[in-house]
Amino acid sequence: SPDGYQDQATPSYTLRAREKISQPARRSEPIKENPKKRQEPATPKPPNSDSKKQRPAGLSVDELELACAVACGLDDLQPEEEEVAMLPPGADHGAYVKVRNHILTRWRADVRRYLSLEDAASRILGKFKPLVQHAWTFLSAYGFINFGVAPKLMREPERSSMHARTQKSIVIIGAGLAGAAAARQLVKWGYKVVLLEGRNRPGGRVWSMRMEGGDKIGLADLGGAIITGIDGNPLAVLARQLGVPMHEIRNRCPLYLEDGTEAPADLDAQVLEQHNALLDGADKFRDELPGDVADCISVGAALKMLWNEVPREPGREELQETLMRWHFANVEFANAAKLHSLSLRNWDQDDPYEMEGAHVFLPGGNGQLVGALLRDVPVFYGQVVSRIAHSREGVTVTTQDNTFKADACLVTVPLGVLKKDAIVFSPPLPEDKQQAITRLGYGVLNKLVLLFPHAFWDTTLDTIGHVSPDPDMPGLFFLFYCFPEHLAGGGAVLGVLVSGHAAERFESMPVPDAVARLMKVLRTIHEPMGITVPDPLNAVATRWASDPLSYGSYSSVAVGATGDDYEALARDVAGRLFFAGEATIAKWPATMHGAFISGLREAAKIKFAYDPPRRRPKRGKGREGSEQEDAAASPSSSSSEESGNDSEPDAGARSDTSDGEFAGSKRAGRSKRAGSVPPSSSTKGREGSGRRRAEASAESLAAVQAASRAAEALRALFSEHEPDVEFGCFSAIYGPPAAPGLLEEGKALVQVDFSGMRTGPRRNLAMYATLTRAQLSALRDVRGGDEARLAVMNRDLGIKLVGRGSGNGSEDASLTTLLRAVLAARKLTALLELLGPEAGVGGQAAAAKLASEMGAGAAEVLKAEADGSG
């Protein structure tokens, strides 16, 4: 732009020693960073070291090996289903797990070496040595050992049983972490691999961009920036293999208000406690709801219902509301989704599997991990895939100017691309996979990154919180990532996150305008401290939702979706099409390490599909399907039209389960729902601070107030007036006959009262929707009671319930329009006055206007319809 700022940039990536490839880069997207909750300041720990550490005092060898297995996502007490399929009948599972954990721990002690089968067996007692082959094969195939970018791990020894015995060709679509991980494994094992990337750079949603300005150069992670939990995290293994130091993110993070002062420490701590109590209360609330009711309710509806019951601090109500909105923005950041779109039942289904340990930045950016993985891997850049066809003969992948044929194809494109049907599959994808693509959520997180001549901020901070004064956009510039010179490659880089509704609106905000608004925030915070904030040398804004190669940032569990949808998306098709990426892994979705692990998983599935272990493993049922279903997915199954030819391996030789889930079992872990490294609750506020100096914009406040008034009017309407139809927890009031340009014919206001459906203390929770009379009649006839009706309404009819201040503008507007029409037709002037003016017309004038548009007989028609005589 004329101002020198960028929507996209030209980064350089060091792929080989002394060799740089500079190429224009399209916009990419971040994969969810999942930092810690707000905590008290912690004592700094020494930098990460590659040197061997002493075993913790008081920890036995068995305990250490169990801890290592858990940290890596494995069940510490019993084998995974993939392992059981590889074990001989009657094998001692307990002994096998001990052998497996021992081998895993030995390699993790030195991740730069290749651990051969012979080395793995060297310390195992003779009677257990037969189990070593099975454990070593599983760990090697699924990327628990002998993976990565260390020189000794780049090629599998030909004598190894992991080396390919068949010359199968694999085409991989997408050069992000998932595609790069799979390519590295398959190339190492000796398969013929080609990788297609639509962008002109590697990394996909991991994008470390080179920024230049004046005589300064800095590196900024415009995509995923944080490795979340380094204990057992394979990305931390890659960093150690490359010798890249990991910078542990410090917990202290002050939270600044609009006037530049810090939030009062007492109220900050109080709201933090209230926020965590809301999350716990939402968990309890969903557990009290019967059946599938919680599947139909959003996190936003539950949190706001509970928040409305929390007493406000006298004299500081507005500030208390503002601080809580910051926490809500933080949750939206963690999920790249607005609160009203997240499933109350399943939004946090991956919490038990969270990686433990410190959260870190990588100096030089995460793109260096992808570059190292792709060393010596043939990559075709600028190849946007438009069609994928598969048959008994193999797969054919079509791009804008090339056609590629192979034995199998691994698809790692973002969920947003699949949602847009940007790739045509022939034959079409199975119905369960298409439904999973539709149900899963996929939202946006954006960043604005600035390069400065020097770090003017407190360099003891890694994060800084900022409370947006706009109640309609609490996620605007709400959290800063601070990269001083030693972390950003020479220049000082400051990145700020934009989440929720603000992230969507940020897509169309001109970069100079965004920079001007951000600089005002920075100067308001720092100049009262006597700090001069210099002008930025360069600025880059992301536009992930507009990027045709991502259409968003990362996945979430939307209302109506479950963790099973991740597994459905991971299942292969006819043994020819395989799928990887952050949206294909139920345990670690929306994370960089989840994407990487999914690539390792699919490499193992491809290997065992075309090059099974020499000993035919026992066939077992997967979590999702029967033996027959597993056989149908095999390349050699005769029951599938798209199965492989007679030379392909039998289905029984495949050791992967049909659900495609990465090996592991549930275990306790810290909740990550807070989503970021939020501000410390112990920060001190300035004297006299705690109130914002300016009110939020009139437009935003008006929208919030209108939503509140509409909720009051709806409650009054349904509590004071008889509904036209009532069944179960559903009540409906018919709308008036249609008026041109006003509303659709046959609509009804519907209230769903959940208070009678839950156990425990009764709490008023009514939610609303607009339905046609035909839909209402269909719901009344559904068998199975209210739970079945709610399931039909959500999954079959696609109706979303709206609560107080849902934040869903289009649905709120539709509801309010019909509500006005009902109140006007029934001449409920008092409720119209409560609802407030419409487009500058007062309540009484609005009633007269609506009555005039609908005709004088509207109220009589409604009464006749209610009586059944109309």
From TrEMBL:
One of its GO terms (molecular function) is oxidoreductase activity. Residues 16-40, 684-696 have a biased composition (Basic and acidic residues). Gene3D superfamilies: 3.90.660.10, FAD/NAD(P)-binding domain, Winged helix-like DNA-binding domain superfamily/Winged helix DNA-binding domain. InterPro entries: Amino_oxidase, FAD/NAD-bd_sf, Flavin_monoamine_oxidase, Homeodomain-like_sf, SWIRM, WH-like_DNA-bd_sf. Residues 631-642 have a biased composition (Low complexity). It comes from Chlamydomonas leiostraca. Belongs to the flavin monoamine oxidase family. This is SWIRM domain-containing protein. Residues 96-156 form the SWIRM domain. Residues 1-58, 608-699 are annotated as: Disordered. Pfam families: Amino_oxidase (PF01593), SWIRM (PF04433).
